[in-house]
Structure formats: structure tokens, C-alpha cells
Amino acid sequence: MSSTNNNDPFLEAQADVLSSIDTTRSLFSSYLRIRSLASATSPELVQARKELETAVQDLSSDLQDLVDSVRAVERDPFRYGLEIDEVGRRRRFVGDVGNEIEDMRKELRDTTGRRKSSGANGTTLPPPDTFGLDSPPPEERDDYGAFEEQRQVEMMQEQDEALDDVFRTVGNLRQQADDMGRELEEQGEMLEDVDNLADRVGGKLQNGIQKVGWVIKKNEDTWSSCCIGVLILVLILLLVLVLIL
Q1: In terms of Cα–Cα distance, which of 157, 155, 5 is closest to 80?
Q2: Global confidence as pTM
């Protein structure tokens, strides 16, 4: 995402603002300390005030660049690869820095007793409503709201299409499952028929084997009787021959 990209110009400018505000805070603390100890015409206080005004003026200029950047991405955050939460975080950041700058400006106004303080180069600091982050222009608000509503509608349509695809896929899987179930039932019936046929063939084969065995046994008994008769006849003939000779 762009919010985590180290090359994001906003993040680079944000780092510069954070560095500048640390320096400005240090000058502000030093200015408050000197103001509490020195008189209003003290050269040290005047110098500290000028340094603080210069730092605040520079910080305000840098912050204005961030404000312009936030306003630009607010119109179409997805175009820049930003999420709504990241845009909100950037708005809060520049808002917090703007409030802190305004607090410093109030302290400078209290010191001089004037409503506007002059910077080191003779120019005035930008008014607080310059940042205008808490209440963007109505037309920008309307455009952004319309864009967000349209984006939500598009996201809902995309989700509906994704759900339709899922339903179609589930329907296809259910149809395939039904077809497979019918095929399994038909194959089961065919296997049952094969088993029945195998049982019938096995029974017939067993009966045939028994009949063949019975025939063989009968044939064995007949041949034995014939052989005995032949042997008896041969013995009689031998006895007759012996007696004759």
C-alpha cells in the first residue's frame, strides 16, 4: 500500500515536519522560560521570540504543503492507493500539528498584547483557519461523500457477483455429485447381478463335477468285474491244458 511506501512524498514531508516541530518545541520551551524570568524589553527575550516566530513560520509553510496533499487525496483516495483510515490518520496528523502551532501563536500574541504577531521577515503567520481540516469546503464534502457512496455501491455489486459465482460453482458441484451417485448405484446393481450369475454358475459347476465323479466311480467298478472274469477264464484254460498235456 502507498501508506507504507517509503517513497511516498507525504511520508517524506511528514518526517521533515516532525523534525521541524521538535526544533520548534525546543525553541518554544526556551522562549517560555526566558519570558518568565526576563522583562518584555529584554534583548534575550526579543531574540528568543524572533527565533520562535521564524521557526513557527517555516513550520506553517511545511504544514500547508501537507494540508494541500491531504485535500488532494481526499477527493479520490483509491486513486492514490490509500485506504480511508490512512487518509483519516493524515488529516488527524496535520490537524494536531496545526493546533500546536496555533497554541504557540497564542503565546506570542499574549506577549506582545496584539492580535497578530509579525514574523522575523515582517510577514504575519497564517491564520488558523488556513488549515481548514476539520471542516472542508461543502462542495468537497459533497463530492467525497458521493464518491464514497458510489464506491460502496460498486463494492456491493462486486460482492454480489462473487456470491453468484460461488452459488453457480456450488450448483455445478451438487449436479456432479448427483451424477456420481447415480453412476455408483448403477454399478452397484451391475455388481450384484454379476455376483448372482457367479453363484448360479458355481452351483451348476459343482453339480457337474459331482456327476462326473459318479460316472468315473461306476466305470471303475465295471472294469474291475471284467478283469476278474477274464482272469478266471484264463486260469480255467490253463488248468485244462495242464490236464490234457
Answers
A1: 5
A2: 0.42
* Ordered per-residue pLDDT tens for the chain, 245 residues: 444 455 677 888 888 889 889 999 999 999 899 888 888 788 898 898 899 999 999 988 888 888 888 888 888 788 878 888 888 898 899 899 989 999 988 888 875 443 333 344 444 445 444 444 445 555 544 555 666 677 777 777 777 777 777 767 777 777 777 777 677 778 778 888 877 877 877 777 777 777 767 766 666 666 777 777 788 888 888 887 877 87
Q: How many helices and strands in the chain, by DSSP H and E?
A: 4, 0
The answer to whether 63 and 17 are in contact (CB under 8 A) is yes
Biggest alpha carbon–alpha carbon distance for the chain: 184
The residues, any chain, with a CB within 8 Å of residue 233's CB and separated by 6 or more, are none
Helix axes 9-37, 43-75, angle to 10 degrees: 150
